[in-house]
């Protein structure tokens, strides 16, 4: 074991490599990495609740912040590994797809949900744009602002700073967000998945929905299977895998696919 001695006036500090907490290797599962049975007090009220565990902090009865874990699986409902990404060489993981696929964290017997990221959230609002696009189905797109605008259709449509808040997710009336009770969730936004936001009447397109700006920090390395891609995820702040914010939009131009 390599040792380095640092002599500081009044102190003697012994640093060893054993004191450095190693990052988990891809696919490793250790204590605390698995889906927890501890009580977590926040739900969005839609599909994401099958693979997040979050705690809510409130201030004067209103939502203030979220923190918790964002889960992935490396095997299908039969316990078979999903595979290896041929480009990055990383094991492929995805979010559990729900009861219809027998992929529910804490319930389905043949999957092991492990923490892919730590998640933090700040409450806000965003205007829904679309779910399907030229590159297929992906994360729903939301239009937001980078600064406080007096002409904005709602308050709190500004990307939070400091931080790396690159994802927005909406709430529904069946979640535990205090805003689900007051002021309540509109029928346009009260949907279980992104496809329903777009296609189920009344459509949420061009509607402002309440939700959370989220930042995620990867705690292991893998290739996330999502939106028709295998997205390499490296340790640390992840600004790539769940990016779904727009700050401008043009209804008239024709854009061709990038994949």
Mind explaining what this structure looks like?
With 259 residues, the chain is an all-beta fold. It has one domain. It contains 1 helix and 13 strands, in the order E-E-E-E-E-E-E-E-H-E-E-E-E-E. Strands 3, 4, 6, 7, 8, 9, 12 and 13 form an 8-stranded mixed β-sheet that branches. It has a 3-stranded mixed β-sheet with strand order 5-10-11, with no helix packed on it. The relative contact order is 0.19.
Summarize this, please?
The chain has 259 residues and is an all-beta fold.
Name the average pLDDT.
88
Strand content: 35-45%
- Helix-strand pattern: EEEEEEEEHEEEEE
**Straight-line distance between termini:** 48 Å
- Could you describe the largest sheet, including whether it forms a barrel? 8 strands, mixed
**Number of extended strands:** 13
Q: Which structural class is indicated by helix and strand composition? A: mainly beta
Comma- or semicolon-separated keywords:
259 residues, globular, 3-stranded mixed beta sheet, mainly beta, 8-stranded mixed beta sheet
